[in-house]
Specification:
- By secondary structure, this protein is mainly α.
- It contains 6 helices and no strands.
- Helix 1 runs antiparallel to helix 2, helix 2 runs parallel beside helix 6 and helix 4 packs antiparallel against helix 6 (about 135-160).
- The longest helix is centred in the first third of the chain and has 38 residues, at about 1-40.
């Protein structure tokens, strides 16, 4: 069972990474083509900037999840690093629990926001709910990552306590 979960999580991580790569690549190509069409042919694509904006939204929210998972977001650790190891783990636990609460609020408010997005985009006529669907989906992923970090923080605290720290 543990092996299946690891494979599932690994697959989700790959999906997140490939989605980011795809969005960045498509956005780069679209903007490059848009520049060529506008400057060389004086015929800009009506939908290109709109699609690039929507891809940027997806990149932002996918990137947050990727950063959380990789632990690459900026953090202020000057005070925490000076604490004893048990208090460092406790501090990490508090921060991760605060993050979990923030992601729960993000999930709830994003669902409320989606409920009011009953319009379509101007140029592409794309349902705006589809554009913003990434927010609650990623909020659930953020919560899962944060729960994993909370479990890790608790394990660290218990191991250090047993180790006599």
């Amino acid at each position: 069972m543990r092996w299946v979960m690891k494979k599932l999580v690994s697959g989700l991580h790959k999906l997140e990474e490939y989605s980011l790569i795809l969005c960045l690549t498509v956005m780069g190509i679209i903007l490059f083509v848009q520049i060529i069409m506008r400057t060389v042919f004086s015929a800009p694509l009506k939908w290109a900037e709109e699609l690039a904006r929507y891809l940027q939204i997806w990149i932002t929210f996918l990137g947050i999840g990727y950063g959380i998972r990789r632990g690459s977001h900026i953090g202020m650790t000057l005070l925490r690093d000076r604490l004893p190891r048990v208090l460092q783990a406790l501090c990490g636990l508090v921060v991760d629990m605060a993050g979990l609460l923030a992601f729960m609020v993000l999930f709830r408010t994003s669902l409320q926001f989606l409920a009011h997005q009953n319009v379509v985009s101007t140029a592409m006529e794309l349902p705006m709910q589809l554009v913003y669907l990434v927010i609650p989906v990623e909020a659930v992923i953020y919560m899962a990552y944060d729960l994993g970090m909370i479990v890790g923080d608790i394990r660290k605290m218990l191991q250090r306590r047993k180790g006599g720290c």
